[in-house]
# Entry
Amino acid sequence: MATLKAKEILNMNETDREKKLKELKLELVKAKANAAKSGSSKAKEIRKIVARILTINNDKNKSELNKK
# Structure
């Protein structure tokens, strides 16, 4: 899985971000289960990407509210 940079996330529209967020949450569950079995995990990286998407969503929502 490639790391999503903030610039890439900003270029996505809202529906793409929501879709990617759902995919990442599912992948996070799988990574946690895999980590329990093998001991290695990509969960930390996935959590960071999820946090980036949520932060950008919140910033966009706040800026839209301020414009109104």
Observations:
- The chain has a mean pLDDT of 89.
- The first helix runs from residue 6 to 11.
